Amino acid sequence: xxxxxxxxxxxxxxxxxxxxxxxxxxxxxxxxxxxxxxxxxxxxxxxxxxxxxxxxxxxxxxxxxxxxxxxxxxxxxxxxxxxxxxxxxxxxxxxxxxxxxxxxxxxxxxxxxxxxxxxxxxxxxxxxxxxxxxxxxxxxxxxxxxxxxxxxxxxxxxxxxxxxxxxxxxxxxxxxxxxxxxxxxxxxxxxxxxxxxxxxxxxxxxxxxxxxxxxxxxxxxxxxxxxxxxxxxxxxxxxxxxxxxxxxxxxxxxxxxxxxxxxxxxxxxxxxxxxxxxxxxxxxxxxxxxxx
Amino acid sequence: xxxxxxxxxxxxxxxxxxxxxxxxxxxxxxxxxxxxxxxxxxxxxxxxxxxxxxxxxxxxxxxxxxxxxxxxxxxxxxxxxxxxxxxxxxxxxxxxxxxxxxxxxxxxxxxxxxxxxxxxxxxxxxxxxxxxxxxxxxxxxxxxxxxxxxxxxxxxxxxxxxxxxxxxxxxxxxxxxxxxxxxxxxxxxxxxxxxxxxxxxxxxxxxxxxxxxxxxxxxxxxxxxxxxxxxxxxxxxxxxxxxxxxxxxxxxxxxxxxxxxxxxxxxxxxxxxxxxxxxxxxxxxxxxxxxx
Amino acid sequence: xxxxxxxxxxxxxxxxxxxxxxxxxxxxxxxxxxxxxxxxxxxxxxxxxxxxxxxxxxxxxxxxxxxxxxxxxxxxxxxxxxxxxxxxxxxxxxxxxxxxxxxxxxxxxxxxxxxxxxxxxxxxxxxxxxxxxxxxxxxxxxxxxxxxxxxxxxxxxxxxxxxxxxxxxxxxxxxxxxxxxxxxxxxxxxxxxxxxxxxxxxxxxxxxxxxxxxxxxxxxxxxxxxxxxxxxxxxxxxxxxxxxxxxxxxxxxxxxxxxxxxxxxxxxxxxxxxxxxxxxxxxxxxxxxxxx
Lengths: 292, 292, 292
Fold this sequence. Notes:
- The structure is a homotrimer.
- By secondary structure, chain A is of the alpha/beta class.
- Chain A is built from twelve helices and nine strands.
- In chain A, the strands form two sheets. Chain A has a five-stranded parallel beta sheet, sandwiched between helices. A four-stranded parallel beta sheet of chain A has the order 2-1-3-4, with helices on both faces.
- In chain A, 50% of the residues are buried.
């Protein structure tokens, strides 16, 4: 997301809204193959890219690493080189390595487009775009909007991508959550607040998933869902302190009764289901832009 | 299957026969996404739903639980809520939990159709429909037809669905198999007979698979294939006692030489291969009915 | 490959070249289902068959053995019998058993075409065809061409298929590699040479992958990548001894710096990426020929 200008982002958002309104892509009259390579578990990102690809009329290849030559020791580079040689024009990738894509986009022999579906604790640009789309649908404009991001900031690729782009677009960002899960590197984007303050201040209360798969064992062993919910979660009580037109967001999957109270997930203030719906259109816009 | 009236079933069977004769669905002029979520192993049900979906012109999303957020602890409810939000219009599900579908069809926020591809030891409606279709093709009418169901009655979702619907349609149902695998709850549908009596009486000899994956370890350890075959299986000798026009059915996969003799699986009396073929058309009829 | 005459092979190669030039198949006006059943890991063969199937306009069923009734003990025979009953017209199979296909093509009840995507240490006909296509593109004619095949000859299904067909087509074949991985059975196709001699003699230097998954544990424990590379690999030094217009081939995945130096994989003499590209068209020709 660092490389995108606000104008480019606003253009992508416009296109995503058009797709949501029923616009279709003027696809070249030939088969275009997309490959999805998810080396980390995913429900939303993976399936919404698949649906976005099909809505654009692409042929989809689901790459299953566990049944591939990756099991014989083949590297990510050689895997993508192969798919490129087979005629794949766009690869959507999720991988646990930060910046895995550098060697792919710098290769002279790999010509297909690379779309990042999440890299390690790095970036998650398509999630960022769908979050921005959901906020824009609600408030129209980003200028002066107060967005509070709470939870496991340091492991979150969502937090980083969103904080960068929201500030570029004129929003004011706040952070909260356990201090040991915060990274001072985020100070450049906004202020750290107590959870109660963040909830009362924000137009958008964005909760982040507790990612046990990215914590170490010791942290997981001592973790109490009830304690986390009480100290850093959006409890029913805290939710009652939200501004009148404020909304709740979460990249999901939600740990119900941890990051937010079970009853809030599908509540009138929640945009969590809408975020998932918008993800399809945001991803159509991204795919179209790299295929053009 | 409890909720279907005989007329509704007969209408579905008629439609399945039409599909088999080459009829096609008058599909709305838009993309329709179906998702298959099989949390239990399956070859026939899974692949024939996939083929049925494609024959109806649907876009198919194969949900792979082992590479999804289910691995991060996401519930079935939240998974289906997600797919619904992504625009999926029908989910075909197989799950080990009896009545898993209740919370899905009762949810206000899940709008997609749910098709049950088998729940725990509960129901297996699409298998039931293809069995009825195969019987109807053979005998035309169900009234007075004698159907013997033999094997692991209590764990079988096929037995339950079939016994309910066959009796509703006027057939007479008998059961046989190991007494410890029988459930007196089935007395309401028909009489328990010795295996030899069942074979000599029945127009349809329906064998059930020994489901080791649903038995406990002790039962599996003491199980002898040869003994089972001799006592409760359709041996070549027993098959020679079948009525002249009686047929053999089995939901498959068959344990050859356990539930029935190897040589009977593809014999002239067997309709096991035909059951699989009919499954595609029965499932087309089911999918069409929920999409309309 | 034993059953193909040179003329039949040359006709397939011609058709593959036509597909590469943009020709399309005159597909019958109906849905045709292909199923891919890969019981061994694969990236190139599996994905290029998938793409070839889609380019021919087929509907593709990806059979996932690990989520199928194979897990309940169902045999390969009964699995293919099932897919055939469901209406699948061509099954592409890879399996660890040599000649697994015999019982399938000899069955009276299995009607679908079987395409061998690799059987144990047996044959790999589609790899053979794409290799021949790549050689033909380079040299036009096979007569008198010198082809050196080096590496794990005895476990390689590529070596066997290629040696058989290349000699039929008039090429001269040589072998090299560790003596303990050589099989005197190959003497009928060509002479065994020292690696340096093979490199200097050959128009095509074809390296074979060290297949640790087919070696025993003891062999794997004592294996040294550096030693193998030095003794039997295409080092940079050896590559400098190649004839001026000689090319490098490898079925891939490549163990870089084992069978050949890392820098040679994507070098100007290498046709490894082209082999992958040609694989799609070779497989289209094979599929078309069995569907006609």
